Amino acid sequence: MPHPRSVLFNAYWAAWTALFLAPLLVFAASGSPARPIRAATRLWARGILFGLRHLVGLTYVEEGRERIPREPCLIVANHQSAWETLAFLILVPDVAIVAKRELITIPVVGWFLRRSPMIIIDRANGTQALRTMIDESRAAVAAGRSVLIFPEGTRGTIGDPVQFKRGVELLYGRLGLRVLPVAVNSGLYWPSGSRTRAGTVVVSYLDALAPGLPAADFLRGTEGAIDRELDRWRPADLGLQMP
């Protein structure tokens, strides 16, 4: 039986999102102005985090925020939940998020996300997806924005080892930026295909890596740093994943 708080949050999500239909029509008729659309997208994300806090009891804390470079960087984070996809719109304003094409099929929200600082790729088209990711990431950096990627490609659980899919090392090499690994434990409280739970998501910003490392060193440094940080919640808290 669905938990009442999850049901209430889902209803809130739908109602809050529906409120953005009118602005969507106005923006579409006005030529889709980028800055107001981005502001509206962040407002939507803030509203979702508000609902999680007050209806579910799901909050978050940031650790090591001082490690975020002042200049544009490549942010590499593990992926366990829908939470981080929307939360990073707030945590790192104006960040360009590499996201899968399916995201823009969400009614109303998808329209805003497509026109916000997101880099939409079709993972089924491997070579073209890589080219799009690199070209649009370069354009974002040239505009002064950092790039965020979830290189695991799909959501995992807190117990899964962090394993990046092919492509992130190529993006790292082409951008020539410092890399900020980020560990997120959102899967403890909003696992894929399950209800949201009360708790505190931890967003841990780790030590940045220099540009220009060999691909193997880059992968070992980022995967290893995130995996070691996730060990803080393994294995004692794994029971929290059970429905």
Automatic annotation (TrEMBL):
* Transmembrane segment boundaries: 12-31
Keyword Disulfide bond in the entry? The reply is no
Extract the SMART domains matched here. PlsC
What GO annotations for molecular function exist for this entry?
Answer: 1-acylglycerol-3-phosphate O-acyltransferase activity
Q: Which InterPro entries match?
A: Plipid/glycerol_acylTrfase (IPR002123)
What residue stretches are annotated with the Phospholipid/glycerol acyltransferase domain?
73-187
One of the protein's GO biological processes? phosphatidic acid biosynthetic process
Recite the UniProt keywords alphabetically: Acyltransferase, Membrane, Transferase, Transmembrane, Transmembrane helix
Q: What pathway is this protein a component of?
A: Lipid metabolism
Annotated CDD domains: LPLAT_AGPAT-like (cd07989)
This chain's protein is named 1-acyl-sn-glycerol-3-phosphate acyltransferase
Q: What is the lineage of its organism?
A: Bacteria, Pseudomonadati, Pseudomonadota, Alphaproteobacteria, Hyphomicrobiales
